[in-house]
Amino acid sequence: MQTQTIPSPEECQKAVRAWIESFPVQPLAYLHSFGCQLNAADAEQIAGVLTSLGYGRTEDPAKASLILYNTCAVRENAEDRVFGTLGSIKHLKEQNPALIICVTGCMTAQPQVAETLRRSYRHVDIVLGSAAASRLPSMLYAHMHGQRHAQDITVYEDIPEGLPTQRTSSFKAAVPVMYGCNNFCTYCIVPYVRGRERSRQPEQIIEEVRSLIEGGCKEIMLLGQNVNSYGRDLGGGMDFPALLRQIDRIPGEYWIRFMSSHPKDATPALMDALLTGEHLARTLHLPVQSGSNDVLSRMNRRYTVEKYLSQVQYIRERDPQFSLTTDLIVGFPDESEADFEATLRLVEEVRYDNMYAFIYSKRTGTKAAAMPDSTSAAEKSERMQRLLSLQRRISTENNARFLGKTVRVLCDGESRKRPGNLTGRTSENLVTEFPGDPSRIGHFAQVQITQTSGGMLSGHLL
Ligand code: SF4
Are residues 46 and 128 in the same domain? Predict the structure, then answer.
């Protein structure tokens, strides 16, 4: 491999921009991001950096001068899809040797993946780990100067501020408040690929949120692997409820949502902020993962079912209809029938508006991957069906509380199934459909609910 000294990021940026400007026609970049909302937020920064370097965008890899995949490591089958996709674009590199193929994200932050790419995917030019946007110009510089298969998978623990961001929506935005995770849930790879928790300075977050609101943004999602530990590394008494309250004071017409919120760190102060905030969406996503204390302990979640239910009780005593949603893992190694029935009982008791349930999928590099598991795949999928059918019934019953009521929704698109209808979401994040003109998209509206089902609310605009 050819090596050379890489100048400062600013010099790299200048040199790469000058190189791109020298092309007879503007080169186009194809960018595809897999995985969670944090990855999508990273991709908006990557897109911003590529644009600032002079790249245009294309949705067709065959027309691109640079193809970038921003990958996710949460599920192993997602990784297989990335390897498959990389194999399927090899011919593009053969047709156009000047094409730059770049892979970034959590998947490539794993040394064994980077090694597989180096050995078996020689048509990949650049490999970068998570939070790649700030390092991209330096890697393009190295590539431009002849470095073959440039790799940098260091898990950097800095917080690059002020990166250009190309947002995908004019009225919804994601704002990371912190990066990394300290929790080491035994099924999760994130702490290994995104590093330890580090919080952005509150002033930077508040300024970014303020400028989004002033620019017409109507919904802002604050992101972190566990927003409830926001501020611990900053000192000075700043925590997530305090941050929420400060953001809530920004004048304007908008909603604030956030994720993810670890139950072990969810405090009454967080719930009080949600119950009283003017702009805070009235819903809390509190991922319980299992209703069995044994399973929770093997997951290293560090809360019990009893503690979780006391949090639910706190918020529901103050607002009996407060919307709660959750994540659940079905079939964690050696989950017994009794463990699973405990999960069903918890779901029945909490009565979530919605849930994201997954069958446990083994993740190499985590502790759970080495745990014995005697539950068959068929049993796991049968449990999953029972859980989903219970949740369908509860969602149907819960949604009926909106029948005949007027709800405020943020219109976010046109219905794919019913032409002429718009879709929107309520403060509780429930999907709502109603006839309306596309000019309403991106604005709040009042909708009278005339029909409800387990999946959504329907009605008409007032
Ligand atoms: S809190 Fe647990 S599940 Fe969430 S990112 Fe951290 S380790 Fe993974």
Answer: yes
Residue 410 near ligand 1, beta carbon < 6 Å: no
How far apart, in Å, are the Cα atoms of 192 and each of 160, 183, 225? 20, 11, 13
Give the predicted TM-score (pTM) of the model.
Answer: 0.93
Is the pLDDT at 2 greater than 50? The verdict is no
Distance 327 CA to ligand 1 centre (A): 12
Q: Of all protein residues, whose CA lies closest to atom 4 belonging to ligand 1?
A: 225
Q: Is residue 195 one of the residues assigned to a domain?
A: yes
| Ligand 1 pocket residue status of 193, Cβ below 6 Å | no
Closest CA relative to residue 201, chosen from 253, 167, 246, 264? 246
**Any atom of ligand 1 within 6 Å of the Cβ of 273:** no
CA angle 135, 186, 349 (to 5 degrees): 115
Would 144 be classed as within a structural domain?
yes
Find the domain containing 327 and state its range.
Answer: 283-401
User: Is the minimum distance from the CB of 191 to ligand 1 under 6 angstroms?
Assistant: yes
Tens digits of residue pLDDT in 257-278: 999 999 999 999 999 999 999 9
Residue 449, domain CATH:
2.40.50.140
Q: Is residue 424 part of a domain?
A: yes
